[in-house]
Design goal:
15-stranded mixed beta sheet, binds adenosine-5'-diphosphate, alpha/beta
């Protein structure tokens, strides 16, 4: 046994990450890779022990809109596995627009993780400046707008009507929520550490930390080194590898060359996605709209979409989308219910994604967090290798399915430039 242990050293993970949705997990993995870490992303809690020698594992859950108790349960299983792989720090990743339902589960999951890790203090910062998400005086901005004035007002599942993170998180937490203001962050890591200590003395359990720029995040990084638990979006990741004596990487891992047809499946109703769909259509590229209210049945709609795809796949990428305006979504929700409509559309798109791969698609872009979750599950993807970045927060990834190799990019709704869909295939080529 001693000899075997020498030949097959136990792979110890440094950073263990739990992401509340699939695109968010990829977004975090992307930032960690770019900052110098070797990362594996797994969908759901893996059954096997970690065998690859990596610095971080990101476990992608699909818990964002689940009732708090379910989200806590899933996160605990993930925590247990990550601890068993030797993770010395846990990172709970949620959306940079703090997406949560009115009975939000970010607070309950964060506090359950704190309890399990035996810590009385953690941070909460969804800042991601590369994608225009900044936190100032505890308020979350999306570009130039307060979160509550942004398109997130009209999100089909998690409308965000308040931008004050201290208030939103406090409503979800038992422990007190405090704030580390930007004027402290601007001074540097030691000042942030001192502020953490002062908040802790005052009985604060979770501190929202202001950050406007990447420099802020890099300054915050060293102050996080001793915390057993971090919570935030993917931006916080850029300041972490230095704590593990790892340097910034020039390039994300190389992926095998792309194969097969190119397709996009979009169930995101976010503003950025609307622009991307319009841009794709205005370039004269083929697209097929899914309209839940006009379909005779889900089966009929899936068959119709795949028959259309069969005729158009080839020279050019094709787009199949359900993305619709808030008014249209509300009309659908009125008839099918909020959850019902979301699930119905996700199921249809997931079956279409699987059908597309069966038709020879080898390069697949999925737009929408929940939509990506449904597509990944229906394709049976268990883990992915992280490759080059298309836009901040969205890398190409690679996986091998029974059907063959698949390059896949999971785009969170509000990420990416208007030309994202076409550009993504150019990045891969
Ligand atoms: P994002 O990343 O933009 O938030 P998601 O995929 O996470 O995108 O969420 C969008 C939700 O809206 C999904 O549950 C999806 O099924 C639902 N949806 C998409 N299109 C429609 C539509 N036309 N009518 C009703 N709901 C829709």
């Amino acid at each position: 046994p001693a000899c075997a242990a020498r030949r097959y050293p136990r792979m110890k993970v440094k950073l263990g990450c739990i992401a509340d949705d699939f695109t968010g997990a990829t977004d975090l993995a992307n930032n960690l890779v770019r900052a110098g870490m070797r990362v594996t992303q797994a969908f759901g809690v893996p059954e096997a022990q970690q065998s690859a020698d990596v610095d971080a594992v990101v476990i992608a859950l699909k818990s964002r809109t689940n009732p708090a108790q379910e989200a806590v349960q899933q996160s605990m299983l993930a925590l247990h596995w990550l601890k068993a792989q030797g993770a010395t720090q846990i990172y709970f990743k949620y959306c940079s627009t703090f997406d949560s339902t009115p009975s939000g589960n970010i607070g309950p999951v964060a506090e359950a993780l704190m309890d399990a890790l035996g810590t009385d203090f953690t941070v909460a910062t969804p800042a991601f400046p590369d994608n225009g998400r900044s936190v100032f005086k505890g308020h979350l901005f999306v570009g130039d707008q307060l979160l509550s004035d942004s398109g997130m007002r009209d999100h089909p599942l998690t409308p965000m009507l308040d931008a004050n993170l201290v208030r939103i998180l406090q409503a979800q937490c038992q422990r007190r929520v405090g704030l580390v203001e930007h004027r402290v962050v601007a001074v540097g890591a030691q000042a942030v550490r001192e502020r953490f200590a002062a908040l802790r003395r005052d009985g604060v359990g979770l501190a929202v930390v202001d950050a406007i720029t990447n420099e802020d995040l890099l300054r915050i990084g060293p102050a996080l080194a001793d915390l057993p638990l971090l919570t935030g979006a993917s931006g916080l990741a850029i300041g972490l590898p230095q704590n593990f004596a790892l340097g910034a990487a020039q390039h994300a891992a190389q992926l095998p060359p792309p194969t097969g047809h190119r397709a996009i499946v979009s169930g995101s109703c976010s503003q950025a996605t609307h622009e991307q769909v319009a841009y794709f259509q205005s370039a004269g590229l083929p697209s097929f709209a899914i309209d839940p209210l006009k379909a005779a049945s889900a089966d009929a709609l899936v068959s119709q979409a795949l028959a259309w795809a069969g005729e158009h796949l080839g020279q050019r990428p094709v787009l199949i989308f359900s993305s619709a305006t808030p008014q249209t979504v509300q009309a659908v929700q009125k008839i099918m219910g909020v959850q019902g409509a979301g699930q119905w559309v996700e199921d249809v798109l997931a079956r279409i994604a699987r059908g597309l791969v069966d038709l020879g698609v080898g390069q697949l872009v999925v737009a929408g967090g929940e939509t990506s979750g449904a597509c990944v599950q229906s394709l049976g993807i268990q883990s992915m290798q992280i490759g080059p970045q298309i836009d901040p927060g969205v890398p190409w990834c690679y996986t091998e399915l029974a059907r063959g190799p698949l390059h896949v990019a999971l785009k969170s709704g509000n990420f990416g430039s208007a030309d994202f869909f076409e550009k993504s295939f150019k990045v891969l080529a």
